[in-house]
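Input set for joint prediction.
Command: fold jointly, output tokens.
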Amino acid sequence: MDLALKPDHQTFADEIRAFTRGNLSPATKAKTFSGKHYDRDDHVHWQKALGRQGWLAYTWPKKYGGPGFDVTQRFLFENVLAEEGAPRIIPFGVKMVGPVIYTFGTDEQKERFLPGIRTSKVSWCQGYSEPGAGSDLANLRTRAVREGDHYVVNGQKTWTSFAHWADWIFCLVRTDPAAKPQEGISFLLIDMKTPGVTVRPITMLDGAHHVNDVFFDNVKVPVTNRIGKEGEGWTCAKFLLANERLGIAEVPASKRGVRSLRDIAQVEPLNGGRLADDPAFAAQIADIDLQVQALEMSELRVLSTMAMGGAPGPEVSTLKIRGSEIQQRIAELAMEAVGEYAQPYQPGMLFQDTNETPVGLDHAPPAAPRYFNFRKTSIYGGSNEIQKNIVSKMVLGL
Amino acid sequence: MDLAFTADEQKFAADVRAFVRANLAPDIRDKVKNGKHLIRDDYMRWQQALGRQGWLVYTWPKKHGGPGFTPAQRYIFENVCAEEYAPGIIPFGTKMVGPVIYTFGTDEQKTKFLPAIRESTVWWCQGYSEPGSGSDLASLRTRAERRGDHYVVNGSKTWNTMGHWADWIFCLVRTDPKAKPQEGISFLLIDMKTPGITVKPIIMMDGGHEVNEVFFDNVEVPVANLVGKENGGWTCAKFLLANERLGIAAVPQSKRGVEALKGIARAEHEDGKPLIENQAFAEKIADLEIQVTALEYTELRVLSQMAHGGQPGPEVSGLKIRGSEIQQRITELTMEAVGEYAAPYLPSLVWHGSNEEPVGPAYAHQAAPRYFNTRKTTIYGGSNEIQKGIISKMVLGL
Amino acid sequence: MDLSLSDEQKQLQEAAERFVRDKYPFDSRRKIAATDRGWLPENWAQMAELGWLGMAFSEEDGGYGGGPIETMIVMEQFGKGLVLEPFVPTVVLGGGMIGRAGSKAQKEALLAPMIEGKKQFAFAWLERQSRYNLADVSLKATKEGNGWSLSGHKGVVYNAPVADNIIVLARTAGAGREQKGLTLFVVDGKAKGITRRDYPTQDAFRASELTFDKVSVGADALLGKVDEGFAVVEEAVDRTIVALCAEATGCMDAINAATLEYIKTRKQFGVPIGKFQVLQHRMVDCFTNAQEARSMTLMATLKIDDKDPIVRAKAASGAKVQIGKSGKFCGQSAVQMHGGMGVTDELSVSHYFKRLTMIDLMFGNQQHHLTRYSNLAMAA
Ligand SMILES: Cc1cc2nc3c(=O)[nH]c(=O)nc-3n(C[C@H](O)[C@H](O)[C@H](O)COP(=O)(O)OP(=O)(O)OC[C@H]3O[C@@H](n4cnc5c(N)ncnc54)[C@H](O)[C@@H]3O)c2cc1C
Ligand SMILES: Cc1cc2nc3c(=O)[nH]c(=O)nc-3n(C[C@H](O)[C@H](O)[C@H](O)COP(=O)(O)OP(=O)(O)OC[C@H]3O[C@@H](n4cnc5c(N)ncnc54)[C@H](O)[C@@H]3O)c2cc1C
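tokens >
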């Protein structure tokens, strides 16, 4: 057991830091620290830079064009990026569909799709949830009927994050309505430009537009776009969900969040002094700081098992649960820090590059919207109730 | 709407106070004030004094020998008694079996049993729970077989509070094992001196003896001791549980508990200052006091409805939940206030009122045992999970 | 002791329920929020007609002799409908302070038309550095001939965009956070030297940042006594807190009802999600929280007229702590139990959640009031 970094890991971290400082646009970085929303270009520019360096698909093995980082390097990579204010890598290509394709896809599919993901030339979105299939994903009803060498897809996906920015969508569709729910599902890759695909925005409670409904009206999809066998999409889906849970803890971003909470407390006024001098508020920051540290150690323990060749088990669900609660708490404390000045709603300051000056301090405009928006973290990626059910069943045997 | 008491009510409060001051023995008052354990004789002396005044069965209607208090008088009576450090009235006779007897019993039973309850000459205990029947009470298996003019009872009851002090026990027994679980149960009154009854102590985690197992080995009980109809016992049981939930919130005791906690926080020191000047600790007490106030006003709202002819509904389960949590929190904060001096375990002081010199301040040795012991409040009287189940079903219709 | 409503109060409650049912279905509210003004003059006129603008004022002042209970009754219904008309800044705060500290002339000039629905107010106390300290005021009022000249900044002033008069808390003596030396002025909303930056709040109300640049007012602008404004403000704010608590109980009832309905109808895994025990117990906790909030609001409403300012302050702070705690619990739970639907703009739940969140941080959040309560309660 050893927490200290080896010298070559230190060199590695320095290299990542230098690269980020050289390649991350200052405007994007500023958005991270002021809590503004990124636009598509912020993500794509940064991801392309990473792609050119061969680092975008940092979790992939060398065989598929990944950098082949060991677990310590992965950990450092994620942390340094977060510290330097890089936007999080949009997971749909790199962390979701990419691994599904290299694990279950044909050679042809690998050649066709993996390069676009590694370089961020192609943006992906995830078409799993439907109005009637949220927690109960296997209840999905979007139908794909085989007609010769293509499928005809009809139905609706919902909550699709960034569908309005995406070039492609990966979908779970029902190919056999007569089979048991999990057995009649297939995994399809669909070009968003195909006729019959419509995207309709869903406005979130803070006014943001991240998620969408996606409608399919007789959409023709070549059979060659199916990953794995017909009727075996559930295997891909489960594989992907397990991958999703690990990164979703967002420990590096939460560490950054705690640091900025402390910064905010230094500048927010209180009775002629600073909020940081208020023992009650300081204690709340200390408490969340400790929660982040506990979560980080739990994640490191999982990584360490993986380094020894073990696979992460269903207990990673607890990382998702605690990770989401922590993100929510940080957002809540940031709003409390702002006090009465959390009340003005300034969409211009959140979603656009305006020259408007904020009402209140710079960190004030996003404080309440972020708190509202972050309620999503205990809902998406499998709600926390569902995660607890998984732990209860798979780990505790209840 | 009005919070003020009428002149009559104010006079009543003064009368109750004068009575308690004149009739509560100083040694008993001292024990209650200092959180010491009471013995059977302490309870009996106080309850008999109340009995002579006609106030012991303060919730009973006039018709059955109660004082016929209005809801406001009840509230005043409970609060003044608690403020004056009177012991809590043991509920098994006065609040549980008494009302069952005057509601479901025969005239003969009323004449035989009610006077002794009103005067506290007989000590009752409750025989509901069994080893296999806790939350799921209706699964009880203690068997009563009819033989001529008596029943023969076999089985065991458990968790009988103060069963070792009791003269009589009221029991739920199974008279028809073939009927549906709720339909084969009867309500029997059993003299604890009947041959075949054995009482075995259960020692609690604080080392105290307050609960027992009671074994029945061919115990003969006259049929005249059956309350209500044979196999109609569940009706009595439900009636009694609803009565039990209202008083269990123990608001007056909790108000007294918060005051005692403040006293300890004034006596304890930290960094050369009274603990109560520690902002963080003071705020914990404040938070608790607000919780007690909220509970008190919820109870007052129920009482006010009752004064206007309404009946308390299943929502009073909420009072039990919050009341028990608050009781636990008081003991927890008291232990926190005592700090390291909560560690010494001095059973002879806690249990036998010995003259041994306490280690640390006089209140210290009680703190941890009380905290441990009070974990019971969320379990007994129907656990809090069961209470939530009741509200969910009966109030919310889920 | 009696905690039931009188017949007249029951009628008031029914009228307020009817108003919310007619004027504030969720879709209508969305439309009202999207108008420039953010509320409807016709609704304001109706409130005047129903007597709500004057109900809490003495008959002597042209009101109808009600009090905090009447305010509680309507505010609770306003909470259920998320009503947007500026009742709190105009009637509870502005009207309240004029009623308590105003001269006969001021009452005639300001209160009487307010009760008729013809004048609206805003109350400007907060500054950038104030956080929740009502005395942390640096906007200066200096003597200028017979009158005064006001200079400085005020923030998050509700209803300032349309208010006929702004009641300004200014420093006339002392410095920093001294309570002595604060004075209230009634300033014309359109007075020369006031610059406004208007904006919506998170929960769709309208407020402004105000800059005062040598704004001249006459001697008659003085509300109450020079240097003695703080006590008036503190009392008015405590009363406002109690009104906001009543509004929050209405929000909680509504958000709980909506969530209960949702979990009874939303099906996953072939059953209504309300069949899952975790959600059942969480729903019970929501109802218990709302009950406690209601109890504390009632307590504070009945104690806010107490002559002892400590009793009054403890009651208001105690209720605000409860409302903060319960509001957060009910709000967050409702969103969670709605799943993805909860975080959209589409259903009413997220709007109740936002309002509950903002109520917590108006005039001091849960932590602030816990500290205040604690300081008052431990002193005894
Ligand atoms: C911001 C956001 C982005 C998203 N992005 C995507 C995306 O890109 N692609 C995609 O496919 N999906 C996406 N989702 C959808 C997300 O995966 C679903 O919202 C989630 O699975 C929950 O489903 P639901 O919203 O239908 O809630 P429901 O399943 O209706 O759940 C409602 C409530 O019931 C609870 N519940 C349900 N079942 C149980 C049970 N068995 N036991 C106990 N409690 C239960 C839930 O925990 C929740 O509290 C996104 C969601 C959000 C909010
Ligand atoms: C100090 C003390 C004094 C007592 N005095 C008496 C007395 O005088 N007379 C008497 O008859 N009884 C008495 N009891 C018994 C008391 O009523 C039972 O302990 C209680 O009903 C719980 O039963 P159990 O202990 O068997 O726990 P269980 O029923 O085994 O419960 C264990 C846990 O499971 C939970 N649980 C059970 N069912 C459900 C469900 N459906 N949903 C969710 N959670 C559930 C419970 O809440 C609890 O947390 C006393 C108990 C104590 C601790």
